[in-house]
Amino acid sequence: MNSTIIPCLRYTHALQAIDFLCNAFGFERQAVYTNADDPGIVDHAQLTYGGGMIMLGSVREDTAFGRHMVQPGEVGGRETQCACVIVQDVRAHYERARKAGAVIVDAYEEKEYGGAGYSARDPEGHLWYFGSYDPWVQGGGGDN
Fold it and tell me: Which CATH number belongs to the domain containing residue 107 in this structure?
């Protein structure tokens, strides 16, 4: 089954961000649509990782959607949410991201609730969490 919740991000330098996300975090380009009038602007891109996806585009003030978003650098590096990506080999993923220049926020750590993980920022300050804990497999659900 494909993910039905897809994070959507905006980047000032979207083409460079796509390269970074693929090189450092292992995403794969599924689609990248650049603006017909300005090929440096990404109107829409889809990157996949396993069965998940993120969508992204260039920071734009000339669209209704774009006016609802701010970048981490505009709010002191803070985020109200972050994408959590399930990876198979967290330690290898951590080393790949670190070597590619990701800013490690929380180092690799074994978690008491199962699995391992770490968090990092991309070059534009978006916060990411990568871990091996899979709530679909490890019974992380339930009604409270």
Answer: 3.10.180.10
